[in-house]
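Technical note accompanying the year-one report. For the benefit of new consortium partners, we illustrate the data format agreed upon in the data management plan: each record pairs a sequence with a structure-token string. No post-processing was applied to the example shown here.
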Amino acid sequence: MLTVHAAPLVLPVGAAGVSGGAVAVDGDTVVALGPYDEVLAAHPAARVRRWPGVLTPGLVQRDGLPLLTRCYHPDPREADELGEQPLTGAELARSAVRMDEPRRAGSVRRGLQRMLRHGTTHVAGVLGEPAVRTAAGRAGLTVVVASGIPAGEPSLDPFARGGGLAGSVHGPLTVGGRADLAVFDVPDEAGLCAAGGAACVATVLGGRLVYRRR
């Protein structure tokens, strides 16, 4: 279905931002990008999704490999005991978590879901473990080559590694390109870089709405 995603500010990266902008998506492809009135006039039969804040390309998770293979993502039912953030390193060793295969598989699935909730559409790294590779494929995330292994503790926030917006996105939004989008409830680019991926309210992966904050 043809869908128009509209937001107060569209930041395509590599081109000027569009106030009162919109992106039209047909299947998994961006077919128009520009002011909302112009995009809708060109596609009057499209379904319209209106979002708050800023719409950008989807983000790259450069800590994908350690987040999926060296962290434990607690089940919501374990939040009182283990919290909600990934456990890693000494913190994981001190916990009561014993990583059998079912628990590990659940952790990988939750890790991928939490990446989507931070605007992630691409994961950097070689996902060599079959279970991890299969789960990422089922989630629809695109795996890209990593430029190196980031130092320090892994973070679910792609901005922790990418810095600004240009270094955190998978690439610019372009007409004819794949429709990987993220939407953040912030007023502008400065607000986005300050708030990070936690401000995500929607993630669109290959044209599919895979996360929406309720």
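Partners are asked to follow this layout when depositing records. The chain has two domains: 3-58+170-212, 60-161.
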